[in-house]
Amino acid sequence: MKLIVQKFGGTSVATEENRLKAIEHISKAVQDGYKVVVVVSAMGRSGAPYATDTLLSLVNDHYISAREKDLLMSCGEVISSIIFSNLLKSKSISSEALTGGQAGFLTSDMFTNAKIIDMKVDRLRFLLRQLDVVVVAGFQGQTDTGEITTLGRGGSDTSAAALGAALQAEWIDIFTDVEGVMTADPRIVNDARPLSVLTYQEICNLAYQGAKVIHPRAVEIAMNAKIPLHIRSTMSNDLGTLITSIKKANYGQDIQERPVTGITYVKNVTQIRVQAKKDDYDLHSKVFKSMADKQISVDLINISPRGVIYTVPEEVTETATQTLKELGYEPIVLPGCAKVSAVGAGMAGVPGVASKIVTTLTQAGIQILQSADSHNTIWVLVKQNDMIEAVNTLHRAFELEKQGSVDRIDHTK
Amino acid sequence: MKLIVQKFGGTSVATEENRLKAIEHISKAVQDGYKVVVVVSAMGRSGAPYATDTLLSLVNDHYISAREKDLLMSCGEVISSIIFSNLLKSKSISSEALTGGQAGFLTSDMFTNAKIIDMKVDRLRFLLRQLDVVVVAGFQGQTDTGEITTLGRGGSDTSAAALGAALQAEWIDIFTDVEGVMTADPRIVNDARPLSVLTYQEICNLAYQGAKVIHPRAVEIAMNAKIPLHIRSTMSNDLGTLITSIKKANYGQDIQERPVTGITYVKNVTQIRVQAKKDDYDLHSKVFKSMADKQISVDLINISPRGVIYTVPEEVTETATQTLKELGYEPIVLPGCAKVSAVGAGMAGVPGVASKIVTTLTQAGIQILQSADSHNTIWVLVKQNDMIEAVNTLHRAFELEKQGSVDRIDHTK
Question: Where is each ACT domain found (chains A, B) (predicted)?
Fold first, then answer.
């Protein structure tokens, strides 16, 4: 059975016009001989009657149980799935809508952030033998006792990836309101352009570092099952960005021609510097335990015998500072920072990438407050006022506005 | 465990004001030491975003499967149940919302009109040991393969009755927008008044004959389980109408003092008269088979060797006439009729009730086109123009505007 998964997000299902565009994509796949599993989000953003936020606004968050919250939210996707299925049938495409549970998502009972335990797709396979399309309500599953759960952030992406993996789909289309994964946020970089191919690892890092195009959890599931992903726009016929393995992406000898794939940023970060007192042997464990106790997530940790530097989200600055003072420290606190990241699977083992970043930023008069790196990402912390210039400077330095060699690959093959 | 069931219909859950009134009733029961199973309908009538009709308006009825229709409609009651549960908790009443399936409604897979096969209420009992209230989404159930079903017309009443029976509730409150069961429709009879007690059989007959206060299916379930029902208004503290067995209603020797309990009507009826041809031995079977083949429901059937007289709903007049002509008959067709019924458990074996009806109507100049009777209902067919006068005339003739002896019973005991 030739089979693909197509996921349509909130804006793609929000209006009749967008839904009809979505139906065209599904119809095209059916004409090409594919069985299509369609995964849908709830309809639209805040304000629309069946949007997730609107449903949640019907209740007082203080009193609702996580279990009831999931049950309430699940209605949004169920309603979407039925509207989609109905529209498909009106265009002579045979279809049936299923809830997450009916489609086979067996999850833990960790409400609002349930984990997929197993995919029981026998029924889905059975339906696909008879129908062109099965529409599945995204973002949701069911426990073995019949509780309705939701999968947490990026849930419908995760649904699509899990279905693609369980059904061994040829690929998964993630339809969204952008043309694909961009080299940088086009709102702040004029020259940003869509990338035609990326590795799973690159998209994960871009996503973790601020690009909101797909949830990393979904990418990991697709990566483990070796299913390619397309990130594409509902409103166009372009194939968008292909996400696949390094090998399949055919980087080969060209990989070093593209050490950096994209530049991302995370705003509203506070840098905290704690200096060690005399004989302060357990400084690091004390500091990080106190942060964990307050549920503060820390990042960009630089440890040295003289102390520790790290970052926290700006909104917890006050709590973090107070906590450290209670431990007897006088932290040096610098709010108003931003993390800028250069991501690229090709940078591993390529000398000079970090040096180029430092030199470029310094020459542009941008102060680097801190830095860190992994095999495919380099982070620098800058003042938020410098952020836009830093992103643009790095985008130009790595010539990301130009079509690279790997972008010439025809990824429909 | 002292336990009651309280059902709140569409208008009772439609506005915040009405919901708060409903919460007061639940709160009162909890204060009186009862565990309360609350059954809710979807919120409000057409136009409200989560009303059943509005949900159905999102799709094209021509393409939706019955299975998808049920899944879509079920969201309306689920959303209601969570809003109710949330409101209860905000008033310090512990509560949790369950879908029909989670509450134990195991049904057939006859979508849009599913039958209850079994009530699996272990989980509900378990929750009731820990909580004051469990709110159950009415009108819905689940098959053994996890399909969501709805219970058809009067579904939330049926849900309440089935829960009352399965949990052996002390009684079931059916909250509605009227004060109780009336002696006649107050929109056409000025002197109509609420009845304080009725038998199960009487309310069933009233309901079948046009009174829309509760669905007969719900009454039958309560009757078989011997659970009393109260039909009452959300907006008042009156106990409304008690529905119970003849014995419990304490009619005793007074029963013959109330041969007639209420007068109802059904509008838009067509009378059809078919005359037998020579040697037309199978006239009756031919006629009724042809009506059944066209899915036309027939009523008030009077059979004689010379032919047959019966009624059909006015909207199928044309189809019925055409069908009979194809059989070679020339039916005499009279549209614009109305069925007026006098219902009363006390009329069985009481002579003169039929004669009083005939005499009264004749004296008032109302022509009786046809009549029929069972042990507790007498029907007459009149011209629709005469209907309002016929109902008022009979209401006066049986002195229904006066408080009867059985109405003095204190049914809180």
Answer: 342-413
